Amino acid sequence: MALRWIEGFDAATVDDGMYQRLYDAAASTLNVNFTQDDGANFPGDEAVSQDENILVTNALVSPANNTWIVSFAFRADDNIEINDGAIPYVALNNTDGEQIRVEFLDDVVTDSRPGATAFYRLRIMRGVTEIATSIERFNLGAFSNAEFVYFQFKITIDNAAGVVEGRYTWMNKPTRNPAAGYTTLTWDAAVSSVDTQNQTSTGADRVAISFNSGNTSDNVTFDDIIIMDSTGTKNNDFPGKVAVTRQLTDTAGGGDGDTTSWTLATATSTEDALYEPGHTLIDDDKRLTSDTIGQIHLMQMDALQTEVNGSPIIGCRVDLHGKMETSGSLGIGFMWRKTTATAAQIEFGTALTVSSTTPVAASVIAEDDPNTLTDWVQADMDVMQIGVKNNG
Fold first, then answer.
1. Do the domain assignments include residue 183?
2. Residue 330 belongs to what domain range?
3. What is the pTM of this model?
4. Residue pLDDT, tens place only, 157-196
5. Is-contact 39 145, C-beta < 8 A?
6. What secondary structure does DSSP assign to 321-340, as a single string?
7. Domain count of the fold of the chain
């Protein structure tokens, strides 16, 4: 499987605690609550804009791999500078540390006239060594909330034969439709047959994303993040236009699926228990509980809402948060049920182990529909049921 991570910041609840559970809490820096930014009203419009925060994924593969593709939408909100003591970046890391990073580097025009525009360039760094800086520069603070630059990088980590390929397009989030396609980034120095390996160990197994510009007033925004590696047989090259959007429970039916054997604790429906807007995830009195091994609880999903209907679905991410009511431990499996044609349900993904009253979380990425082991079909996803199993 080549698709390793998806992030659209479109969860019902966005807070520090949630991301401490979904990311590497020890390596990440979460000083300030994220600002969920929905500058336009369309599916998948939420992004996260906040200074000081650094998100580091958990290990995405084992062992580490040498070639990665990282795609993301980026916007800098300030039109003066974004480097007030720190430089935002996206980096490939392994257990020994950082291998290589792409930085968003100020390129300020020293012009005091009204309307003068500041810019940023991209800089590739291996530790303290600069590999190259982009010829292209991009406006700071020139766009509305819905408009981003979408960057895509394919990076091979090697101490002599390293390669960095990059491209970009201007992207309006409602359509994700780059009118002129992608443009290849150009650089002021060689970006092939170069040393891109900062550690003595090879490869990378995780990605770090830094929002930190050194000034809480100079926010930068990331969204629609897709991370892939070169293994497997799918998603091994640059994706086209990309949208990451959430899929909610079916409110019309109360969210209840075919199997609903877990107990609704103070909740009136599955939807009531599993989808509550607001910062209530850490200590929530409405939830599902189970003390019987083998019990399954499924929720009916609403139709997938996206502005790119009909485009290929490259993958699905499901997050699961849980905790013990008192003592003991519990394994919770990810359940997926196909309801169209030949209905079937299957457990897919590494189960979440819960062993304390402190909430923990796990995620699973599915490139294919787990019930068919073939490409996702939107008509199936529109009526998919997703849930949990008590594995004891």
1. yes
2. 256-390
3. 0.90
4. 999 999 999 999 887 665 555 556 889 999 999 999 999 9
5. yes
6. EE--SSSS-EEEEEEEEE-S
7. 2
